[in-house]
Write a structure and sequence with these properties.
alpha/beta; 15 helices; Rossmann fold; 12% strand; 2 domains; 347 residues; two-stranded parallel sheet
């Protein structure tokens, strides 16, 4: 596979890291791209700002050999119009830079997510299928997909992968649910409280949800590239669950009682408990004394308060030949907590 060269944009995040591992393990040549001076892997790294075409133009030599673009960069914004404009420009600038570098680009791969179905609005048609009608725009993912479709006439193939709530390692992310559960559980134990589900009863007992392990997403990324899978594909662990089935196992992992669901604002509580975390991190020799670098409560305040089913139909990817969606999400979540402990992110 030495003739295949993938450029991974947004490689520092949980999604990008999963791709770095999957493509690296398979022997692909990898170049990462981000604003930082270094990438997450041992390979080549391009430092550039995707909103600054001139910074990309200075990287012509590094971009010339790229055959596949894996795009996992994201610039969130509370205004959906601004978010759509900025993220569309970022992808379009990068593709333009690859063209100017005369890269032999064969496939554009990009990450979407529940927002493509309207998950950010709190309710959407479920189980969500890839051919469901769009919600009322704007939406950054609509813009990126329409751009990809516009390139089909020029021979450029594209794949959109649609994971839901990726569970994996990253720091400084506003949307890391696995880390947030680990942080919350550690603080429950430190403050000697039960690990109560921080949302309403209906969200805890009634709602069906699914998540995507980072390894599963990485496997799907490699599968899509090597089998030349065209179009959009939902990707999850393959199961669905209710929080009431999984939460007691998480509490048991921490050695805590479950208690009853109790809606709170994790964003408010975690900021108030930062001094507690500082003392715990110092006493236990943890790797990160800033709790907000591990996880941010706002994402949980949304996820744990959703009171309608939020699940994807993954039949399309299975029919197309992806066999990796055979995981139990409780196993994925507990393994993530083990990983957090091994990285000394939680005691």
């Amino acid at each position: 596979m030495t003739n295949k060269h993938v450029l991974i944009a947004g490689a520092d995040g949980v999604v990008g890291r999963s791709a770095v591992k999957a493509f690296g393990d398979a022997g692909w040549q990898i170049t990462t791209l981000g604003r930082g001076a270094k990438g997450p892997g041992p390979g080549a790294h391009v430092s550039a700002d995707l909103l600054d075409p001139e910074s990309l133009a200075r990287q012509t030599a590094a971009l010339k050999g790229v055959t596949h673009l894996y795009y996992a960069a994201l610039k969130p914004n509370p205004d959906p119009g601004v978010e759509a404009d900025q993220n569309a420009a970022m992808l379009e600038n990068l593709v333009a830079a690859l063209r100017k570098a005369d890269a032999s680009l064969e496939r554009l791969m990009f990450i979407q997510g529940g927002k493509v179905y309207g998950a950010q609005l709190g309710v959407y048609k479920t189980p969500a299928r890839e051919d469901d009608s769009r919600h009322f725009p704007p939406n950054l993912y609509f813009r990126q997909e329409d751009f990809a479709r516009s390139l089909e006439g020029e021979g450029l193939k594209w794949t959109a992968l649609r994971p839901d709530i990726v569970i994996g390692h990253s720091l400084g992310s506003a949307m890391n649910l696995g880390n947030l559960i680990g942080l919350y559980g550690a603080l429950c134990r430190e403050t000697k409280t039960a690990m109560q589900f921080p949302g309403p009863e209906a969200a805890y007992r009634n709602v069906l949800v699914n998540v995507t392990g980072a390894d599963v997403l990485g496997e799907s990324s490699l599968w899509a590239a090597e089998t030349e899978a065209d179009g959009a594909f939902n990707v999850t662990n393959g199961d669905v669950f209710r929080w009431s089935h999984v939460w007691p196992k998480i509490a048991e992992w921490f050695g805590l009682e479950v208690g009853e669901p109790q809606p709170i604002s994790l964003d408010e509580r975690l900021r108030a408990l930062q001094p507690v975390w500082n003392r715990l991190a110092k006493h236990q020799g943890l790797a990160e004394a800033d709790a907000s670098r591990i996880a941010q409560g706002g994402f949980g305040d949304f996820i744990f308060h959703v009171q309608t089913d939020a699940i994807f139909d993954v039949t399309k990817a299975r029919i197309a030949g992806f066999t990796g969606m055979i995981r139990r999400s409780d196993d994925i979540l507990l393994a993530h907590l083990d990983d957090m402990r091994a990285r000394k992110l939680i005691p």
